[in-house]
């Protein structure tokens, strides 16, 4: 049994989406990030970083969205969303998940929270983060053009769910991820999954449907 501490549209989204896609029993615990519930002593006892998501899996609290993506897809291997350890695509799959965490999620965090760096002026942080994000979209789009339609080629993996969430976050940026044609095509495919519709209903989301 899983319990997911989440906030609509946040980094918990990909974990929630996978829980639905995998069809595994879970319960949702809403964290009111506006009210700073993620900084409460009760929550910090689960996740000392004070961010969402936290996934409690069989009583063990776990955090870091990328790790949760990998963990869920491995634990529910019948889904085929993670190449097995001896699959020739395993290395590439791990590469993409870690690459997305480092080259997209990290600068996206700075885009949303420039105060993380305690820098003045924050505009310089925003500009640097935006450039890094756009350079990553360029590189990912070129990869998809050459080897797509998904990150691993013909079959979707958990990495594509993660990529779609990150693309969603840029929807109101000066140049959103879906501005690149092969990324847009991947997003369209992913959005057609019934689990995406269910996710939107459950999180009460409407933008970028
Ligand atoms: N590296 C973490 C980052 C999570 C993160 O930045 N979560 C944001 C929401 S998308 C959050 O909780 N923000 C509230 C805060 O920082 O206080 C992960 O991947 O789980």
TrEMBL record:
Classification via CDD domains: GST_C_Beta, GST_N_Beta
Tree of life domain: Bacteria
Coiled coil feature spans: none
Domain GST N-terminal: residue ranges: 1-80
Domain GST C-terminal span(s) in chain numbering: 86-208
Pfam family, one: GST_N_2
Protein name: Glutathione S-transferase family protein
Taxonomic lineage: Bacteria, Pseudomonadati, Pseudomonadota, Gammaproteobacteria, Lysobacterales
């Amino acid at each position: 049994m899983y319990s997911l501490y989440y906030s609509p549209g946040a980094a918990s989204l990909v974990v929630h989406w996978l829980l639905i896609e995998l069809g595994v029993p879970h319960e949702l615990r809403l964290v009111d990030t506006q009210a700073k519930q993620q900084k409460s002593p009760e929550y910090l006892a689960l996740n000392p970083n004070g961010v969402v998501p936290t996934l409690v899996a069989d009583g063990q609290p776990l955090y870091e969205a990328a790790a949760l993506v990998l963990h869920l897809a491995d634990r529910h291997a019948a889904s085929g969303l993670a190449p097995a350890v001896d699959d020739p695509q395993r290395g590439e799959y791990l590469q993409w998940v870690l690459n997305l965490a480092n080259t997209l999620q990290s600068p996206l965090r700075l885009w949303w929270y420039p105060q993380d760096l305690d820098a003045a002026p924050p505009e310089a942080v925003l500009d640097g983060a935006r450039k890094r994000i756009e350079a990553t979209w360029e590189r990912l789009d070129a990869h998809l053009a050459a080897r797509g339609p998904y990150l691993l080629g013909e079959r979707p993996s958990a990495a594509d769910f993660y990529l779609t969430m990150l693309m969603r976050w840029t929807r109101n940026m000066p140049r959103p991820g879906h501005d690149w044609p092969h990324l847009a095509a991947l997003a369209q495919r992913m959005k057609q999954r019934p689990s995406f519709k269910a996710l939107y209903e459950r999180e009460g989301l409407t933008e970028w449907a």
